[in-house]
Here is the input.
Amino acid sequence: MTRSGQEYLASLRDGREVWLDGERVQDVTRHAAFRNTAASIARLYDLAHDSEYTQRLTVGGVHRAFAVPRSYEDLLARRTAYKVWAESSFGFLGRTPDCMAGGAAGFAAVPNLFTTDTFDGADNVLAWHRRLAEGDLYPTLTLTNPQTDRTRAACEQEEDDLVVRVVAEKDGGVVVRGAKMIGTAGVFGNEVIVGTIEPLAPQDVEQALCFSLPVGTPGLKFVSRTSYEGRARSVFDNPLSSRFDENDALLVCEDVFVPWERVLTYRNVDTTFRMWWQTPAYVNFVHQSATRFWTKLEFLTGIAILLTKANNTYQLPQVTQVIGGLMGKVAQAKAFVLAAEASYEEVDGGRGGVMPGREISLAQRIMAGELYPQAVQDIKLLAGGGIIQLPASAEDLLHPELGPLVRKYIRSPGHGAEDRIKLLKLAWDALGSEFAGRHEQYERFYHGAPHIYLMQQVWEGNTDSCESLARACLDGYSLGEETADR
Here is the structure.
């Protein structure tokens, strides 16, 4: 049975070690930097637990993201669930519980991959997936090594604990030390999976492991970036950042004990990398993120339409053209999701169900990283200076002396000052605030650096068919051949 929002919030009061601005946060559900976002995530759980969307979000008593899809219809049902949650945050919560839930289902679809000559993690993977699904837990992930010296292997850095590695082996498990970066939403999760999605060098045996632990495990330390929620003046002034700041944190492991049953891969460079790419896990990530991205572009395009209507420019041909371009971007984002589903592939000969088509899924990363900055730029141009010249806060509207002045000068025909300011503050939070800047950078690098995913597209794509088609044309004529009926 899925959890209620209150049950989710209660699960976060587990003594987890979260640091912000040099102070330890005692309770993320009550702290001003985290409480509203925690409440927004709790609302997702309520939607699944008991609402008009429950049947769309769950199957067999668990969230659909945890279920291994067995057919094309299952993929469509899972995407419908993704869409409901994405719309709840207008696409601004990226690593919601359904993200890594889909990854866990991807591992469970091919458990034999985790059986190696160094460690057999197959049973652990299945037990982990079952524990997450049946407990309706929020799994988060930290997979990126700190940006230290990228010219050296993980084991060859200046200090031997810069990257998470095993420092001791015991009868009941291993002790790990080191760090991982960009733990998005880690402070809001129940479990954190620590692994490496980037390739390791053959000598990185001590760094070649993947494990999952409760976020409150002793020795796990989350060092939070600036909280945009904490800096928000009010929901009226900062409608997005005050409620949907999923946060990013540096994860530091200080001699953390990991029981063997929590280990998924161990001392195997190849499997620690392949678990993301040769199971449906990563493609499942893309299915969730592509659905969210499509939703986010719909929302931004909606802001553009509202802005131009408020400015009485919506009917101008040059403005209509820009809106048309934005609608085209929304259609592209949608098309990638539908095409990936339609080109679905069997997993492990059908024994592991099905997954969205790999080639289209990986290509979505290229489209999204390029499209998002373009869309933001287009809407900024439509917005003009209105999103800059805004009252500092809602208090100006309520002030007996300033209120009448603001209401007189910041309005447009058919749009009173309060409604106009409300819209412009929403637009600024989405397009120009520090929160918005984080999202633009986030979407650019959501799936990694371009120099990596562009090369991978060549490896994964069907370059032979492209080459063959061009070769067929070349082979269809020769030197000296005359055209018919010159």
In short: DSSP finds 17 helices and 14 strands in the chain. The domain at 5-277 is CATH 2.40.110.10 (Butyryl-CoA Dehydrogenase, subunit A; domain 2). The longest strand covers residues 249-259. The chain has two domains: 5-277, 281-470.
